[in-house]
């Protein structure tokens, strides 16, 4: 058994480029059950708290790059990134691929 815990070995997905993230930037978005199994699966992207929560869920729960491409938008991600609460390993994976997100947060 791995003593590091599930979060340390769980497979997370990161897109090849930020530009491929062409999801919506406004409106109501309903996530499928494989990304959000809670009772409220719809998010109003014009409400910052909703957008932030949806982005955190999609980044943590996506099993394929297609989920990221469909639900995330590069420009909105750049704006929200400093406020996203993500597991350390997830944040590190994204920042390894996209160091500009860290510079933007500074």
Topology:
Blueprint: H1 6-9, E1 28-30, E2 42-44, H2 48-61, H3 65-71, H4 74-80, H5 88-97, H6 99-105
Antiparallel strand pairs: 1-2
Helix pairs in contact: 5-6
Written overview of the protein:
Helix 5 (88-97) crosses helix 6. The protein has 106 residues and is mainly alpha-helical. The chain has six helices and two strands; from the N terminus they run αββααααα. The radius of gyration is 14 Å and the shape is globular. A two-stranded antiparallel ribbon has the order 1-2. The chain is 46% helix and 6% strand. The protein has one domain. The protein has helices spanning 6-9, 48-61, 65-71, 74-80, 88-97, 99-105, and strands at 28-30, 42-44.
- Beta-strand level of the residues, as a percent range? 5-15%
Strand order of the largest sheet: 1-2
**Number of separate helices:** 6
The profile of the biggest β sheet is: 2 strands, antiparallel
Based on secondary structure, the structural category is mainly alpha
Average predicted confidence as pLDDT: 90
Q: Which residues form runs of ≥5 with pLDDT under 50?
A: none
Task: Summarize the helix and strand pattern as letters.
Answer: HEEHHHHH
Measure the end-to-end span.
Answer: 38 Å
Helix content: 40-55%
- Computed over alpha carbons, the radius of gyration is 14 Å
User: How many strand units?
Assistant: 2
- The backbone outline, from C-alpha atoms, is globular
